[in-house]
Design a protein that fits this description.
CATH architecture: Beta Barrel
Largest sheet: 8 strands, antiparallel, barrel
Strand content: over 45%
Helix content: 10-25%
CATH topology: Lipocalin
CATH superfamily: Quinohemoprotein amine dehydrogenase alpha subunit, domain 2
Oligomer: single chain
Shape: globular
Strand order of the largest sheet: 1-3-4-5-6-7-8-9
Order of helices and strands: HEEEEEEEEE
Structural class: mainly beta
Radius of gyration: 15 Å
């Protein structure tokens, strides 16, 4: 009985884990204005790497995943941009907040373009 319960818990936990590998099209609303950046990400376990492309140019991205939550960041001329959010289980979209090197804040929503 205990093994069955542990198996059910593990299946439920893995079902809610974020999977960020793929190309993501995002919409951003912030104190600095709006934009539509793209992220090309690859997740290996809890580590995320990839590329940002948008109004701030192109930059390498690094980050991490914990359950359905994630944090990714990249550097630009004036500091570090950090996206913190979660992958929503209903449709797999990404949603959260952005910090632009302490100079501005905003929100984002992303949909997967391709895997």
């Amino acid at each position: 009985m205990r093994k069955l319960f542990l198996s059910a818990v593990l299946v439920a936990a893995s079902a809610s884990a974020a999977e960020l590998t793929g190309v993501w099209g995002c919409t951003v609303e912030s104190d600095m204005g709006s934009g539509t950046p793209t992220f090309d990400l690859k997740q290996e376990g809890t580590t995320v790497k990839g590329t940002y492309s948008g109004a701030l140019g192109e930059a390498p991205v690094t980050g991490s995943v914990a359950g359905s939550n994630f944090e990714i960041s990249f550097a630009f001329d004036q500091g570090k941009v950090t996206y913190k959010g979660e992958q929503l289980p209903a449709d797999g979209t990404l949603k959260g907040t952005i910090d632009f090197a302490g100079q501005a804040t905003g929100t984002f929503n992303c949909k997967k373009k391709k895997s």
